[in-house]
Amino acid sequence: MSKEINFHFKSPKDSPGYLLGQLTMLWQRKLKKVLDPLDLTQTQFVLLAALGWLSKKNDAVTQIDIANQSNSDRMMVSKVLRTLQEKGFITRQEHETDTRAKTIKLTDSGEIILQKAIVEVENADLDFFSSLDENLSSFNSNMSQLIDKNKNE
């Protein structure tokens, strides 16, 4: 190599982006193991969970509500919701007041699969992050701060 490549960080272990990427891949691998038997991807689970959270307070949850709750791209949410509808986990109906929107609801089988998935994912999370012990709350707080600061970019 004729030119030396210069990095800001002295090693990969000094790079927060690199470490976050590595951690994310390992965590996603763990979630895939628990979600595969339920025939769910992580993205499908995230959108079902967002719908579950939102449905606790609102009977007219829309695709945009789900996209905003999950910080996801609206077009991707639309495609994944179609897949979830094909699987029989959700229904999409015309919104009562907004003709451009659809109201998204969990079906009975969607509620059952979501509850099973929540148990599996939460247990996987507890196991994955267990080494943080008393630092878990601080870790969560730091992640929330980064999400809040960067979600509109």
Largest sheet: 2 strands, antiparallel
Strand content: 5-15%
Low-confidence stretches: none
Q: Strand order of the main beta sheet, please?
A: 1-2
Termini separation comes to: 36 Å
The H-and-E topology, N to C, reads as HHHHEEHH
Report the CATH superfamily of the domain at 41-129: Winged helix-like DNA-binding domain superfamily/Winged helix DNA-binding domain
Q: Work out the number of β strands.
A: 2
Query: What is the structural class?
Result: mainly alpha
CATH architecture call of the domain at 41-129: Orthogonal Bundle
CATH topology of the domain at 41-129: Arc Repressor Mutant, subunit A
Give the CATH class of the domain at 41-129.
Mainly Alpha
Helix content: 55-70%
Radius of gyration: 19 Å
SSE arrangement:
Layout: H1 16-35, H2 42-55, H3 63-70, H4 74-86, E1 90-94, E2 102-106, H5 108-128, H6 136-150
Antiparallel strand pairs: 1-2
Helix pairs in contact: 1-5, 2-3, 2-4, 2-5, 3-4
Describe the 3D structure.
This protein has 153 residues and is mainly α. It has a domain at 41-129: Winged helix-like DNA-binding domain superfamily/Winged helix DNA-binding domain (Arc Repressor Mutant, subunit A, Orthogonal Bundle), CATH 1.10.10.10. Helix content is 59%, strand content 7%. The chain has 6 helices and 2 strands; from the N terminus they run ααααββαα. A two-stranded antiparallel ribbon has the order 1-2. A hairpin with a 7-residue loop joins strand 1 and strand 2. Helix 1 crosses helix 5 and helix 2 packs across helix 3 (63-70). The longest helix is centred in the C-terminal third of the chain and has 21 residues, at 108-128.
